[in-house]
Amino acid sequence: MTNEVVVIGGGAAGVMAACTAAEQGHSVTLIEKNERIGRKVMITGKGRCNVTNATYTVEELLEHIPVNPRFLYSAFHSFMPVDTMELFESLGVPLKVERGNRVFPVSNKAVDIVDAMDRYLKQTGVRRLTDVVEHLVIDDGVITGVTTKSHGTLDAFAVVVATGGLSYPRTGSTGDGYRLAGEAGHRVTELIPSLVPMTSEDPACSEMQGLSLRNVAVSVVEKNTGKTVYSDFGEMLFTHFGVSGPVILSASSHLHSLQKGVYELQIDLKPALSEEQLEARLLRDFEENSNKDFRNSLNGLLPKSMIPVFLRKTGVNPFKKVNQITKEERRQVLKTLRQFTIPLSGFRPVEEAIVTSGGVDVKEVDPKTMESKLVQGLYFAGEVLNVDAYTGGYNLQIAFSTGRLAGLSI
Predict the structure, then answer these.
(1) Structural domains of the chain ordered from first start
(2) Which pTM was predicted?
(3) CA 244 → CA 167, 274, 285, distances in Å?
């Protein structure tokens, strides 16, 4: 069977590469191992699909990409968030912009984005195959096709590897692309989880399991030096293993190694209040509860499930009457409200990460085309590359932009 172009992987990058190549007039076959395309797109943004970030300059986009940002310069120039938004609206999905310029379908349903990707494939005449690519066929440094599990060998003068990373293997991201890249002689950098929940050995986390804190300020601090390596504002969650939620996932992408005892999380529980306002608020609460035990005076300030943990962290006797609390103890209470600390011990497994950090070494890929520097006609797009971004729609935009550039370059 003769094909001009084969794209491996039916996620955001693969669909974009396939449709773009088809729009250039090529005969394109998209091979996806799942019956349905876009399995990972379905679960992004808690099932709402944070499709991109409404950022208007390339420089602003690059600021949100901690790993190899300059490599993406040409890809972003070829396809910006505004282009992503125009594409999906033209495919019948109205979009809206929320806090932090995050873009979602108005329906809040990721399935609408996946259905639009399906329509795009049909519109551009891309042929779909449900199969597994076992090997790349390379002849004297030139790609000539792929061998598949069920459909034998497919000839091609161009192959795009867009198989995703290792995260969420149930969606089909099982690291196939790294194996195929290795076969072609490419170096694959160390694969570690990014945008992933973090673990803590502090039993306080499981005590507060299920508690979600909104509008808190968090900092990740190096314990030895006191240096803040990351700070953010937003929502987080306590779990049986440690901490999760948007600000925690973002923090994880700044920590490429996380050994026990090196970092701690510091949570400012009342970031909207100045020091004076917070002290005035505490004094007011203490005055209203002056004859109560300290443990019964914090209901107005803290969620119920946090109070026993908070009491322990202040070191103040929970049975002490509020009117007997010393100035020094009150200072300690204020300090704990500002710096509620949780020691961090590690990351959850890569299977639970939103993205995989690491991948095909970008030094061996031409940033102007996404073509391999080692094998003519072999292209890479999306998460299989060693690039990753913070939360907020940036990782999907990387997939769309690199897929578009690969498709245009064929």
Answers:
(1) 5-192+350-409 (3.50.50.60), 197-347 (1.10.8.100)
(2) 0.76
(3) 16, 27, 30
